[in-house]
């Protein structure tokens, strides 16, 4: 096996990669759509079966199943390299029919085309190249998860388990629009606050009412005031609802809170401040509860992760990506879970795209082959 066999074969598979990408983009796979998410998984399983790569499903009753595949290194009991990614999207049923996979001016469009079905296609083709030609210095594991867009409630323990067992983790979220990869990410916590007040006729019996909406308004102002842009801490109450009618003091209100932070030490401090705000009744007679609905942890670059990035950067230069750098992202990803359990991790290795989570999401098709070659060469250099 030579490096050229791997990289040349990947170059020859450009159209096959696009064809597989078309297939999986044209299947709806919103995070809560287990049938759709598993249908995307079945398409990847078909690829593994066609190429003789062993795979298995780790079943989940509520969310999509986790899919595992492995390219072994004969006679080796070494820790594997983990190629990771998620197949769920933020889009609901019917989105793929409304705007199916299309290509225009060198870009591909469709729900999840960049975030992150293209990265999964890249991962499975890189694994297939090593299965076909050999030469991988370590075993390669492919993990395809199902619920990253909602903070991986079912996949997190799977990801942490596989991360602890891995020698290195490559998470193929989309490459940045700059062409860079991601070497650091914020942590994020998604919360729900529920407030109880007391209903009363707002004209005839106003004084008897206790407004849950009024209380929520006070809390929103206090929560937003915890934002500290210099430290990378942001608070956003992105959804609010409540009330019974315009002429009734609101007996109930709720809000959803998004916290992002950089330094793991800031988590406890900010959460304590939020909990104090929730426990305080600014409008006498109200009560409130707070629940964490989902959580990501930060990607903090360790010395081992820095070395992994430098190895990848050298491989990327060899693949023609001469200006590639690492950059920080305010978005969260599953890579935080593997970084937190000590696995050297880099993220954003997938083909380059942008405008994720919008109808304008796009993928640069000419980035598919060089990004696949860079990942393969990084594995070879590992």
TrEMBL record:
The keyword Zinc applies. Residues 183-285 form the Peptidase M20 dimerisation domain. The active site is at 88, 148 (proton acceptor). Keywords: Hydrolase, Metal-binding, Zinc. It holds the Pfam family Peptidase_M20. One of its GO terms (molecular function) is metal ion binding. It comes from the Bacteria. InterPro entries: ArgE/DapE_CS, Bact_exopeptidase_dim_dom, Pept_M20_glutamate_carboxypep, Peptidase_M20, Peptidase_M20_dimer, Peptidase_M20A. This is M20/M25/M40 family metallo-hydrolase. It comes from Bradyrhizobium cajani. The lineage of its organism: Bacteria, Pseudomonadati, Pseudomonadota, Alphaproteobacteria, Hyphomicrobiales.
């Amino acid at each position: 096996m030579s490096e050229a066999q791997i990289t040349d074969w990947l170059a020859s598979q450009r159209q096959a990669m696009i064809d597989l990408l078309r297939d999986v983009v044209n299947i709806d796979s919103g995070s809560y759509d287990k049938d759709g998410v598993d249908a995307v998984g079945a398409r990847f399983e078909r690829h593994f079966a066609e190429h003789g790569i062993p795979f298995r499903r780790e079943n989940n009753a509520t969310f999509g199943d986790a899919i595992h595949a492995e390219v072994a290194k004969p006679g080796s009991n070494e820790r594997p390299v983990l190629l990771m990614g998620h197949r769920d999207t933020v889009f609901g049923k019917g989105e793929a029919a409304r705007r199916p996979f299309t290509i225009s001016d060198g870009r591909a469009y469709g729900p999840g085309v960049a975030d992150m079905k293209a990265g999964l296609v890249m991962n499975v083709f890189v694994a297939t190249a090593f299965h076909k030609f050999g030469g991988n210095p370590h075993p390669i594991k492919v993990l395809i998860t199902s619920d990253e867009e909602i903070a991986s409630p079912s996949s997190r323990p799977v990801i942490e388990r596989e991360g602890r067992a891995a020698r290195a983790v490559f998470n193929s979220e989309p490459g940045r629009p700059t062409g860079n990869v991601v070497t650091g990410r914020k942590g994020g916590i998604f919360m729900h606050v529920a407030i109880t007040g007391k209903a009363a006729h707002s004209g005839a019996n106003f004084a008897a009412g206790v407004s849950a909406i009024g209380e929520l308004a006070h809390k929103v102002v206090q929560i937003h005031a915890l934002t500290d842009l210099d430290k990378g801490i942001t608070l956003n109450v992105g959804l609010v609802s409540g009330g019974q009618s315009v002429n009734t003091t609101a007996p109930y209100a709720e809000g959803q809170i998004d916290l992002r932070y950089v330094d793991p030490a800031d988590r406890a401090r900010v959460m304590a401040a939020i909990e104090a705000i929730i426990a305080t009744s600014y409008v006498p007679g109200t009560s409130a509860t707070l629940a964490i609905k989902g959580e990501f942890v930060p990607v903090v670059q360790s010395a081992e992760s820095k070395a992994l990035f430098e190895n990848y950067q050298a491989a990327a230069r060899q693949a023609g990506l001469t200006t590639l750098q690492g950059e920080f992202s305010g978005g969260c990803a599953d890579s935080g879970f593997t970084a937190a359990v000590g696995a050297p991790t880099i993220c954003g290795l997938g083909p380059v795209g942008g405008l994720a989570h919008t109808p304008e999401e796009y993928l640069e098709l000419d980035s598919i082959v060089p990004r696949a070659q860079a990942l393969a060469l990084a594995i070879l250099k590992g």
